[in-house]
Recover the amino acids of this structure.
């Protein structure tokens, strides 16, 4: 009897060991949108996103260049393309520009200021926004961000070119040259003021205030 | 937290409901656990997680059962029982043959006694079969990582809760919804064994990931960002599983409309912001130099920081939003003032009359104004041009009012509401949160600035003649045009 009981017990243990009665199950997997689409939806609906920066700056791991460019292009499209002028869309445009700018600086947005790799495609996207956005305020802000990322002499030439254009972007270019680009930028602003070649009224007023401030 | 009754592991459909209820009633009457009433697997009265050698030995384990093993168990049991039965029969057949061959005098008695003894053994066997059948059906073992842990652990897993009844529910998880911004949400899981190594995580709708605690079935804390809470664990077969529940955080009804104001400046107000050749000015009441005249927000965009225009705060260290930062206070404002150039006021700037046209010089000399004069003196005292001069002054005020009205309207327009644009921002990094807020601030400022510029040429372009004014080259009475 005891031998049988032992036998039964052992076999019972084996039976329980192979017990595979999974009662819990994973929720049905929802079809996953591409990450760029998820980010775009988040930016448009929530006015915020926490995924783009860590990817663009490769904060967690090395990322595929194609993925980073896809995300950056998506954000650029949000900032450029016309949309209903409501709070969500207005916020989405500036958030998109902000993400591109921060990625260009290498800011990851992660806790403890985890350092990242500056996204090299940020400047070209910001420049595209400056030139193509349907919204002048977004063009202006994108130009400010672009100018703070790009410290090349070519950037000074680009700003001078914009200062001679019409529209508010000219005033923004003048202000950047005079206030944010050091001696080189200020020299160009002074030259613009003295030569009187600037045509936009706001840009001229900005030059006038700087001339008054710096004694040109 | 919903308890996980120990005996949910016992109750399976393999036990007839009637039989199970009877066993459970007897267990309740005797004050013992159902497990002990089933087979003597006595549990410590102070710690019923401490299982003392159940029928098939589950030291340090939790009893459990599963239909997948049921068939194997029962088949094994039946095989053993049949074997035992056949052994009893064989033994008594041998004993009968022994009586037949040795003691013929007892042949009339021995078979009868033998049958009685065999019957008793068979009845005993049948009783044991029933008993062990029940035990095998409802018994079993599964690992428990800490079955004999301290009282806190028992409470954590709900083992100190009263025994439940009915079919055990599958693992589940749910979250309570916060009633307000920063209100608490509690996520609770049930039916997940400690061996499943449960761990929590949260992802905001904006994609911010928050890692949560492990080895607990409850997670709670204040909430600022909507998203999805997830508990990940492994089931009894070692397969990774997860359960999720969304949390919606009520948003704050914020608006900076009341922080956007504008009024006509008092004499002297924002005078420091004027440039010499400006007729009038619309600027922030905090403007202190002409270089700041195009900065309408307070603080100005470049100086926005936590403590200056907004206050960033951490959510806290517990719950699904632990470690996130949000904008707790919003104090940025736009307070515009309109002003007319000091030179057009009665006590305005004095300009030399030395190079003035002779007509003005002689008029001022006749009025006892010599050496220098303000524009007001030249028109109101030296000459009789006060009406024309006042018309220009009124035009300038109207012009500045247009600037201010445009700026206020743009700033108060819903999509440009700075506080509303800041409200949903949340980040795991205070610096990036301020940077994001600055982006919104700058963009709205450009919008406001742009609309104020556009208003510059909005009024009728009106020519004013018959009054003396000062240009860069000096006194002149040429017609002066202004968009009123």
């Amino acid at each position: 009897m005891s031998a049988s009981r032992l036998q039964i017990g052992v076999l019972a243990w084996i039976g329980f060991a192979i017990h595979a009665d999974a009662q819990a199950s994973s929720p049905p997997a929802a079809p996953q949108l591409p990450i760029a689409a998820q980010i775009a939806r988040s930016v448009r609906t929530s006015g915020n996103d926490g995924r783009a920066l860590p990817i663009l700056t490769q904060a967690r791991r090395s990322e595929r260049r194609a993925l980073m460019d896809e995300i950056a292009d998506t954000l650029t499209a949000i900032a450029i393309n016309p949309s209903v002028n409501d709070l969500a869309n207005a916020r989405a445009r500036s958030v998109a520009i902000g993400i591109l700018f921060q990625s260009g600086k290498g800011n990851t947005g992660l806790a403890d200021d985890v350092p990242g790799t500056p996204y090299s495609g940020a400047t070209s996207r910001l420049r595209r926004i400056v030139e193509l956005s349907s919204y002048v305020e977004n063009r202006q802000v994108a130009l400010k961000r672009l100018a703070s990322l790009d410290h090349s002499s070519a950037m000074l030439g680009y700003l001078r070119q914009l200062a001679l254009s019409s529209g508010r972007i000219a005033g923004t270019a003048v202000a950047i040259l005079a206030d944010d680009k050091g001696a080189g930028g200020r020299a160009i602003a002074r030259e613009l003021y003295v030569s009187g070649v600037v045509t936009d009224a706001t840009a001229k007023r900005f030059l006038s205030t700087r001339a008054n401030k710096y004694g040109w | 937290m919903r308890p996980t009754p120990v005996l949910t592991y016992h109750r399976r459909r393999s036990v007839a409901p009637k039989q199970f209820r009877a066993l459970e009633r007897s267990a309740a009457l005797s004050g013992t656990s159902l497990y002990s009433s089933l087979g003597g697997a006595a549990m410590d009265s102070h710690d019923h997680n401490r299982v003392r050698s159940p029928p098939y030995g589950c030291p340090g384990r939790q009893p459990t059962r599963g239909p997948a093993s049921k068939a194997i168990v029962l088949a094994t049991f039946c095989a053993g029982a049949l074997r035992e039965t056949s052994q009893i029969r064989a033994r008594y057949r041998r004993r009968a043959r022994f009586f037949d061959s040795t003691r013929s005098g007892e042949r009339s008695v021995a078979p009868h006694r033998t049958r009685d003894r065999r019957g008793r053994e068979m009845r005993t066997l049948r009783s044991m079969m029933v008993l062990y059948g029940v035990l095998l059906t409802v018994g079993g073992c599964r690992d428990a990582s800490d079955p004999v842990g301290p009282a806190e652990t028992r409470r954590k897993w709900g083992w100190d809760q009263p025994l439940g009844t009915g079919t055990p529910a599958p693992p589940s998880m749910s979250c309570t919804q916060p009633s307000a911004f920063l209100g608490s949400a509690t996520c609770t899981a049930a039916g997940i064994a400690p061996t499943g190594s449960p761990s929590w995580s949260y992802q905001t709708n904006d994609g911010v990931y928050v890692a949560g605690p492990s080895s607990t079935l409850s997670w709670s804390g204040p909430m600022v960002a909507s998203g999805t809470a997830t508990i990940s664990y492994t089931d009894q077969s070692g397969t990774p599983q997860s359960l999720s529940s969304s949390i919606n955080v009520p948003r704050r009804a914020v608006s900076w409309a009341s922080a956007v104001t504008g009024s006509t400046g008092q004499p002297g107000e924002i005078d420091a912001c004027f440039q010499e050749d400006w007729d009038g000015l619309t600027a922030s009441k905090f403007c202190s130099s002409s270089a700041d005249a195009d900065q309408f927000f307070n603080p100005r965009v470049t100086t926005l920081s936590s403590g200056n225009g907004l206050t960033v705060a951490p959510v806290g260290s517990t719950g699904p939003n632990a470690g996130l930062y949000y904008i707790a206070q919003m104090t940025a404002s736009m307070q515009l003032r309109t002003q007319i150039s000091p030179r057009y006021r009665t006590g305005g700037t004095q300009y030399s009359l030395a190079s003035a046209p002779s007509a003005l010089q002689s008029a001022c000399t006749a009025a006892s104004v010599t050496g220098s004069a303000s524009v007001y003196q030249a028109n109101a005292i030296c000459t009789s041009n006060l009406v024309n001069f006042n018309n220009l002054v009124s035009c300038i005020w109207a012009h500045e009012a247009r600037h201010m009205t445009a700026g206020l309207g743009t700033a108060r327009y819903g999509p440009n509401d700075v506080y509303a644009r800041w409200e949903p921002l949340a980040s795991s990094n205070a610096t990036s949160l301020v940077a994001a807020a600055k982006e919104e601030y700058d963009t709205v400022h450009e919008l406001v600035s742009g609309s104020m510029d556009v208003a510059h040429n909005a009024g009728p372009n009106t020519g004013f003649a018959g009054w003396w004014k000062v240009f860069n080259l000096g006194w002149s009475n040429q017609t002066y045009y202004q968009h009123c």
Notes: The two ends of chain B are 70 Å apart (CA to CA).
